[in-house]
Amino acid sequence: LKDLINRLPKKENTPKVLLKKVISLEEMIGNLTTRITSHLKMSFKEFTKDHKENKVNVIISFLAMLELVKQGIVHASQEDAFGDINMETREIGVPRY
Is 87 exposed, middle or buried (0-12, 13-18, 19+ CB in 10 A)? Predict the structure, then answer.
C-alpha cells in the first residue's frame, strides 16, 4: 500500500485546467438582436470585434446570425467570397439615449 501511495502523482505535477466562459447561443442571439435593431445595419466583422480573441465566440456569433436570418429578423448579404457579411433589419428598436 505504501508503494502504491508513493507512485501516485504529486499534487504539484498535475496539470492545471483553465475554464473559460463560453457565451450560449441564446445569449448571442439576444445580443445580436439588440445591437442590430438599434443600428439597423451592421457588418459581421463589427459585431465580432469584441470576441476576436476567442474563436468559439465568433462561431457562436455566426450561428446566431444564421438563426436570425432563418427567423427573418435579419437580412445578410456578402458581396465577395470570403468578404465581410453585411447584416440589416427593418425592425426598429426603441432608441437609446
Answer: buried
Mean of per-residue pLDDT scores for the chain: 82
Query: Quick one: cell of 84?
Result: 465581410
In the numeric block, the cell 439576444 is attached to 30
Mean predicted confidence (pLDDT) in 62-83: 91
Q: What 8-state DSSP symbol labels residue 90?
A: S
Residue 86 forms beta bridges with which residues? 43, 77
% of the chain exceeding 90 in pLDDT: 23
pTM summary value: 0.67
